[in-house]
Amino acid sequence: MCLSSGGYQELSEASPRQAAGEAVDPIALEPVDEVRVTTLVDNVYDALLIGDDRTSRTSFGVARAAAAQFEGGSTAVGLVAEHGFSALVTVRRGSTTTTLLFDTGMSPTAMVTNAERLGLDLSGIQGVVLSHGHFDHAGGLAGLVGKKGARSLPMVVHPEIWTRRRLAVPGLEPEEMPTLSKRALDGEGFTVIERRQPSLLVEGCVLITGEVDRTTEFERGAPPIHQAWSGQEWRHDPLIVDDQALVVHVRGRGLVVVTGCGHAGVINIVRHAQRLTRVPSLHALLGGMHLNGPAFEPIIDDTALELVAMAPDLVVAGHCTGWRAQHALAAALPAAWTAGSSGSTFHLTAA
């Protein structure tokens, strides 16, 4: 969920703190030979984007739909874009290939519709990871239910993902967000795995960060309009502690970091992944970076400067990054920045 109200002064009241729980440091993240990240859902679908040697795009005509006003009774259709994020992450190490679903978009239909139009069989995924509990990352679970194999899928989440949250914009009636139900997911047969600490999946080839250390001076979290229910009252929820990312180490290249919204701060997230894995190089950063709106636009320049110092080879800033941050990142990292879009696949291989 993206937040655009509130000021930076209010935002800065949330001071950094270390993640709770025992530190797991370092983590032996096994390097992989290949990783493919396919964006199933993003805020944008651009059928005119051009691919390159590492990026595949989806153009018009990926599927057809009935339309009586055209000769032949049908027309070409593209993909669905909505305020949400979902990606398929496929890793290959040697002859072993595994695909995970990272987030599921906002609506029950967008993710599965796009997967069908792309010819991707979601019954082949071997696990689900939710970056956090906001509904624009978990809504597509409803569409996944009923797919072959879904009932036995493991699902990795942070234990605070069930937190009730709302937006309390001054002058407006507070609006409570849809809250994930653990009972419902258990009832659908998902094997829900709750972890605050980092998790290694796919025989040690995929890291789920768990709760992220907040170490930067400028990434301070959500403004006061973002609130959580404590059990007794609504309180400012700046940290959104359930925010976590997916990390892969591409052999000879460095880390590939996939974020949902990046509520922990994308620089915090990358630093956290580097600390856990002791892999210093950032090869690629993909996903939402939450730099949209007046509460977050003041930290765009700091974020861009830190990313320039990290020198990634690929930056795909999608979902809640915002157009101002997109422009700033494209200017700061012209060789690395690549536009995101529903249906894009980013193919990264070992050196």
From TrEMBL:
SUPFAM superfamilies: Metallo-hydrolase/oxidoreductase. Gene3D superfamilies: Ribonuclease Z/Hydroxyacylglutathione hydrolase-like. It holds the Pfam family Lactamase_B. Residues 92-173 form the Metallo-beta-lactamase domain. It comes from the Bacteria. This is MBL fold metallo-hydrolase. It comes from Pseudonocardia xishanensis.
